[in-house]
Design brief:
Layout: H1 3-23, E1 27-28, H2 33-43, H3 52-56, E2 66-67, E3 71-78, E4 85-88, E5 94-107, E6 110-119, E7 131-138, E8 150-155, E9 161-165, E10 190-191
């Protein structure tokens, strides 16, 4: 085989490999660092929300395959004059939240908006004042994900944009143990989309 033909064949092989990698870009089969940390947390008996009978047989949470199309840039429209309100929970406990702003974003060219919430400040030194709470509902709830919706942890950005990663969507502790008190997702934080990212439902909860 001539050198010229060998180089040509090598180029073709490289091109096909590159094209295949680009085609599969949105799906990553390996576990992320976030998923590994979540599983370590759930395996730790001193922290885990799992009931003792479930912790005994726990092998790991069931996640969707990581999909980069669910990691999007969101525009944050701040709402500085909103009042705190009582957000209901699954028990008689009440948490006081306010709408910190509205997140505007697109997934697969579909536009969506979700409210992001900020808890009322307390004298508790452990409270992170930059923390933002994003509870949401979607079409997957009650099918492949927990019926009560899921949460995403966010932090106040320096500017007016942030990365919204639905691959980090997690279940409230009530999805694993009904002894916990969890904020109920407001109905206005529903998006008409089957969000196949983040953690899936756990058993029959």
């Amino acid at each position: 085989m001539s050198i010229k033909k060998l180089i040509s064949n090598c180029f073709i092989v490289f091109f096909l490999m590159f094209t295949a990698c680009q085609t599969k870009k949105s799906h990553i089969n390996s576990n992320s660092e976030y998923q590994k940390n979540q599983n370590e947390f759930f395996k730790d008996a001193s922290k885990s929300p799992l009931k003792s009978k479930d912790l005994k047989d726990f092998k790991g949470l069931n996640f969707f395959s990581i999909d980069s199309s669910y990691m999007v840039k969101a525009k944050l429209f701040r709402t500085p004059n909103t009042s705190y309100f009582e957000m209901k929970t699954t028990t008689e406990r009440i948490t006081r939240e306010r709408v910190f702003g509205v997140l505007s974003f697109s997934i697969n060219n579909q536009p969506f908006e979700l409210n992001v919430y900020q808890g009322e400040s307390t004298n508790d030194e452990d409270v992170d004042v930059d923390y933002l709470f994003l509870p949401f509902l979607d079409e997957s709830n009650g099918l492949t994900t927990y019926g009560g919706g899921r949460y995403i942890d966010l932090y106040i950005p320096v500017g007016d944009t942030l990365i919204l990663d639905f691959n980090k969507a997690y279940n409230p502790f009530c999805a694993y143990n009904d002894n916990y008190s969890c904020p109920i997702v407001p109905r206005e934080n529903y998006i008409p989309l089957n969000v196949m990212a983040g953690v899936k439902s756990f058993k029959n909860y």
